[in-house]
Amino acid sequence: MNKEALSHFPAAFPIKDSKALTNGIINTTDLITDSNGERYIFQRINTSIFADAEGMMRNIDTVTNHIRRKAEARGKDPERATLHFLPSDNGTLLYRDESGAYRMSKFIANTVSFEGKATAESLEMAGRAFGTFALDLADIDASLLTETIPDFHNTPKRIAHFLETVEKDPVKRVESAKEDIEYLISLKDEASRLSAMNLPLRVTHNDTKTSNVLVDKDTLEPLAVIDLDTVMPGLLCHDFADSIRYSANKVAEDEKEYWKAGLDLDMYRAYAKGFIPAVSPIITAEERKTLVLGVITIVYEQAVRFLDDYLAGDVYYHTDYPEHNLVRTRTQTGLLRDMLEQREEMERIAADPELYR
Ligand code: ADP
Ligand code: GN1
Ligand code: MG
Predict the structure, then answer these.
(1) Is 252 in the pocket of ligand 2 (CB under 6 A)?
(2) CA 19, CA 303: separation in Å to the nearest integer?
(3) Which of 195, 240, 264, 336 lies deepest, with the highest CB count within 10 Å?
């Protein structure tokens, strides 16, 4: 931990104790305790992924202030409803030195996050939390926010990049992935439809994993959506989609027995049951029709991202062995194939009038 950087955050003076939290894989996170026993989360931002840390913190400031106001109006404790970042001694929410960009937030006490494999129950709760997040932010003009990763969900751009890599074949892996490449190319028009539609631009989270929801340790009620680095303008269906991609697959994202991949319809239903009623006050008729297309597009896009990285020689995702990104690609294409077969049932569930009351 960078003690010098920490010393620029006056709220935690004088510091009594610090402990590394190891579950995050993008940022580096420490739990800090001050001499009064108050606790804080101190993080180093991964600026090779998030180059515009200032823009990112402006987004987060806008969004967290907004959620605090909404929580208060609902009679909830605003300090447990979202993250609260504290200024450094330069008056901004960041401190930068040659080693990186740092920030500090209040620790939200007596909470846990859902780690590991989701259950139908935890997934429904996460759906409710992410749906409420979208609802709370629906009255912010999304175009005022920075794209913290430009073109993050621009599927046609992701496809174009992938095709370039296939063409260049820089590490001679194309031969070993011929069928995967052909399968993804055969679906490129279907996967490009969503981005050609005229849909409302909203404030979206873009990393809707269950581990990014803090729940109350005693009641297990979802309290706060965290990990706000990828909050930026996007489509409502993206936040529906990525949770399902991640948690409703029958296998984990890097399961070596990738042929077991497929959609667990009960898990899909569970997330829909949490997310859709929460967004029903804001979702438009057009957006309703894109929920399933969104899921299919996001699973496709993730397959393209993994395969592109495999063909490029593993330059973006951390890998443990040479075929890791190919295995990840196949858990996504397996899920995709199964979803295309179960599409009608997925549509039926997402259109259930009970969810929109
Ligand atoms: P990463 O981007 O690396 O996933 P996160 O911002 O999600 O990092 O933080 C990692 C973990 O630290 C979270 O899953 C959560 O358990 C814990 N955490 C982060 N911020 C807070 C907070 N303000 N209060 C309590 N726990 C937190
Ligand atoms: C990355 O590192 P993690 O799990 O938060 C990626 C997501 C992918 C995910 C796939 C900023 O997220 O978009 O869906 O891996 N995040 C970024 O596991 O690229
Ligand atoms: Mg996280």
Answers:
(1) no
(2) 36
(3) 240
Q: 253: Cβ below 6 Å to ligand 2?
A: yes
**Which residues in 115-140 are b (16+ Cβ under 10 Å) and which e?**
eeebebebbbbbbbbbbbbbbbbbeb
Q: Are 55 and 146 in contact (CB under 8 A)?
A: yes
Atom 16 (ligand 2) nearest CA: 207
For the stretch 196-252, pLDDT in tens is 999 999 999 999 989 899 999 999 889 999 999 999 999 999 999 999 999 999 999
Tell me which of 23, 26, 48, 239 to substitute to probe ligand 2's pocket, judged by most ligand atoms within 8 Å of the beta carbon. Answer: 26
The predicted model scores a pTM of 0.95
Interval 136-178: pLDDT, tens: 999 999 999 999 999 999 999 999 999 999 999 999 999 999 9
Which residue's CA lies nearest to atom 23 of ligand 1? 107
CA–centroid distance, 251 to ligand 3, in Å, is 20
Q: Which residues line ligand 1 at a C-beta cut-off of 6 Å? A: 21, 23-27, 29, 41, 83, 105, 107-108, 111, 113, 211-212, 214, 226-227
